[in-house]
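Lecture notes, unit on protein representations.

Consider one protein chain, 249 amino acids long.
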Amino acid sequence: MALEKSMQNIKIFGVRFDNVDKDEAYKRFIGFMEESRLKTIYTPNPEIVMKAIENPAFKVILNEGDLVIPDGIGVVLASKIHHLGLRERVPGIELMELMLEYCNRAGKSIYLFGGKPNVAESAAKHILEKYPNLKVVGMQDGYYDKTKELKILDDINEKKPDILFVALGAPKQETWIHGHKKLINGSVAMGVGGALDVWAGTVKRAPVFFQKTGLEWFYRVIKQPTRVMRMLSLPKFMIKVLLTRHIED
C-alpha cells in the first residue's frame, strides 16, 4: 500500500507517526505513567527519516515506539503535500518540558543520559532551578566506554527513575532504548537528541519567530555552521517527497 493514513497514525517513507497534536501527545504520556511496562517515545525529523530509509532495522525500531511524534517541519510539509492529514509538528523539546512540568507537580524522578561530559550535570542544574519539586536521581554522559554499558544500566535500575531521557543522538539513542527497554525499571524512556544541550545552556533554541515559521533548522545552521552537512538531509528529504508519487511503506 503506497500511502497509509488513519485517525491514529500515518506513514512517511515507511516511518510511522502518531497523528497527535502536542496536547494529545502529552495525554498519551500521562497514560504511559500508569502502565506497568516501560513505554518509549521517539521524535523523528526529516534527518531521522532519511536514516531510517537507509537502515531498515532502524525503521523497525522507530515503528515499534509507543509514541512517535513528528519533530520537524519537513515531516509536516510532506504530510500536506501527500494529503496525509498530519495535524502539526510536535517538537520533542516541548513535549519534554511538559513532562518535566508533570514531574514537578507529581514529585516524580528523572535520569539524564547522554551529551558531552558535564552537559547532563549542567542540564540537571537548570532543570531543578525551574522545577525544584522533581527529582534528578542520576546523570551519565554519552561518552562512555562500551564495557561500562551494563554498569550504566545497573545504575539506572538502582536509581529507578520514573522517566529516562536519552540524548545520544539518532539512531544511537533509539537503538539503545529499544535494546534495553525490557531491562529498564521505569515508566517512560524518551530519545531527546540535543535537548540536554539546550537545557545546559550550551546551545540556544531558536527564537519564537523561527519556531513558528518552521525555520528553526535554518537558525541552527546560522548559529552552528558545522551542522550544514547534517542539515542537507532536509532538502534531500523534500526533493524525495516531491519526486515520489506515492510515499511508500
